[in-house]
Amino acid sequence: MLLKGFLVAFALVGLVQAASLSQDERIRYDNFSVFKVRYETQEQRSRLRSLVEEQNNFKHWGAIKDELHLMVSPGVLSQFKTELQRANLSAEVMISNVQELIDSEKEADSRASADESFGWKKYSTLAEIYAWLDGILAAYPTVTEEFIVGQSYEGRTIRGIKISYKSGNPGVLIESNIHANEWIASATATWLINEFLTSDDVLVRQMVETHDWYIVPVLNVDGFVYSHEKDRMWRKTRQPSADSSCIGVDPNRNFDVRWMESDGASSNPCDWNYGGPHALSEPEVQAMTDLVISLKDKINVMLAFHSYSQVLLSPYGHSSVEFPPNYDDLMAVAKAYADAVAKLPYDTVFQYGSVGGLLYPATGATIDLTYQEGIEITYTVEFRDTGHYGFILPPAHIIPNSEEALAGIMALLEKTEELGYMKSKKKL
Ligand SMILES: *[C@@H]1O[C@H](CO)[C@@H](O)[C@H](O)[C@H]1NC(C)=O
Ligand SMILES: *[C@@H]1O[C@H](CO)[C@@H](O)[C@H](O)[C@H]1NC(C)=O
Ligand SMILES: [Zn+2]
C-alpha cells in the first residue's frame, strides 16, 4: 500500500499521540504503523535520522542498505507525510497497526501455554526459559554444565550452558537476546540446545559432539523481562541515565571497542542506539566482556543472535571501506550458511557482508570485541524476516527459523574447519 492513500484516512487525527499504558500497564501501540522508506542520498538519510530523534513518535525498527523501517505514531502521520515530501521520499506501509500484531502474538502464546511442554510454539518468558534450562541441566548432567555470565543491573542472573561431549573440541560461543525485543533469538537458541542434546540425525550428532558449545540464551535479562511485562518493543538495558529521564543503553553499542567512534552509536540517552555514558557502563556488557576474555583461548567461532533482516554480518562495524584481514574467509563461511539455508524448503534468503559495509556504522558491538580478542570467525546473525512482521515474528516461525539456524551453523562450521580455523588455539 502506498503512503498517500493511507495518509488521507488519518490526516485529521492531529495531535501528538504517544504510546499509552493500558490497565495492565503494558504499553500499547494502537494504530502505530511501520513504514519502509527507501532513500538514495545522504541528505535524505540524515533527514530520516533526525525524525527518529523524536522518540515518542518515530521509532527506528530496522535498516538494510538504503532502506529504513520506521514506526510512526498515529498522531504524527501528517507531519511524517510532509517530511517525506520535503525529502522527496516515498514510503510503503509495512505494518498498519502494531498493536494488532502484538495482540495476535499474545493470543498464540496463551493458546500454546495451555500445553504444558516447552514446545517452541510460543515465545517463553525468562522464568520459563530458566525453569526449562534447569530441567535440561538435570536431564543431561554428564554433557551439560551451567556457567554464570554475571548479574544484571536489576540483579538478575545471566545464565549460560556449556555442552561438551569430549574435551579438546574447538569451541563455539553463542550470545542471544542482547537486544530485548528480538524474541526469536532466545527461542532459536533454546531450540538449538534441545536439538543438540536430543537429535539422532547422524550429521547433527557429529557436529554437536565435535564442538564445545557455550550458549547464553538471554544476555539482556532485564530488558527481556521488561519486553514481556511492559513494552513489547523494548530493546535496551534497564539502567537509568544520570542526566536524562530516558532509561537504558543499547548494549550492543556499549562494548569497549571503538566505542562511539565513526558515528557508530548515539550519545543521546533517548535514542534506540545510545552507546551509554561510557564504554562498559552496563553490567551485562561488562559480564559478557569478562566471559569472552576468559573463554577466548577455547573459542573458534562466535555468533550473536539477533533479528531481523536475514543477514550475516561480520566485523568491522566502524567503517564501510575498511575490512578485517580475513574478510574473504568470513564471506566464504557466511556464504556456506546462506547456501545451506537456501536448500531448505522455506525460500529464505540470507545476505552477508560486514556491518559497516552492508548496513551502517555501528561500533561497540560484541562481534567487534570477539574479533579483537582473536576469535576470527564471528558474526551477528539477523534472523527472519526481511520486514513483514519485523520484531513481532509470529510464533509459527520459531521452528522453521530454528531449522534454518541449525542447517546454517552446520555448514558454517564445516567451512570454518575447511579453511583451517578449527585448530586448537592454545599456544599459537
Ligand atoms: C485506531 O484507528 C481506528 C480507525 O481510524 C479508530 O476507530 C480507533 O479508535 C483507533 N484506536 C485508537 C486506540 O486510537
Ligand atoms: C524526486 O525524485 C524523483 C524520482 O526519483 C526525481 O525524478 C526527481 O528529480 C526528484 N526531485 C527532486 C527535487 O529531487
Ligand atoms: Zn539486535
Automatic annotation (TrEMBL):
Keywords: Carboxypeptidase, Disulfide bond, Hydrolase, Metal-binding, Metalloprotease, Protease, Signal, Zinc. The active site is at E382. Residues 122-416 form the Peptidase M14 domain. It comes from the Eukaryota. It holds the Pfam family Peptidase_M14. InterPro entries: CARBOXYPEPT_ZN_1, M14A-like_propep, M14A_act_pep, Peptidase_M14. Its cofactor is Zn(2+). Belongs to the peptidase M14 family. This is Zinc carboxypeptidase-like. It comes from Drosophila kikkawai. The lineage of its organism: Eukaryota, Metazoa, Ecdysozoa, Arthropoda, Hexapoda.
